[in-house]
Amino acid sequence: MTNIIETKFGTLVNTRKIASGSASSIKKTGAFYNFSIRITNDDIREYSFTDLARAEYMRRIMIGHLEEKIKNESKSISKR
Question: What's the structural domain count of the chain?
């Protein structure tokens, strides 16, 4: 239940699903495994790895960081 927060509009959202939806799937392009994460509308970051296991691990880590960012932003908005 810690993944669910209330927005300023009063709706409940699951931060894990929002963060997962912001990350693309891993695609093999040549010798690299690529994925991207949308931090904001203007900030899209792309990552490349030579190993699929590293790409999957880093994708999970980045989704976790994005989830924490969403939680922290919602706390700072609710304090206003």
Answer: 1
Q: Whole-prediction pTM value? A: 0.81
Give the residue numbers spanning the domain of 67.
15-79
pLDDT in tens, 18-51: 889 999 999 999 999 999 999 988 999 999 999 9
Three-state secondary structure of the chain = CCCEEECCCCCEEEHHHHHHHCECCCEEECCEEEEEEECCCCCEEEEEECCHHHHHHHHHHHHHHHHHHHHHHHHHHHHC
Quote the Cα angle for 38-11-23, to 5°.
Answer: 15
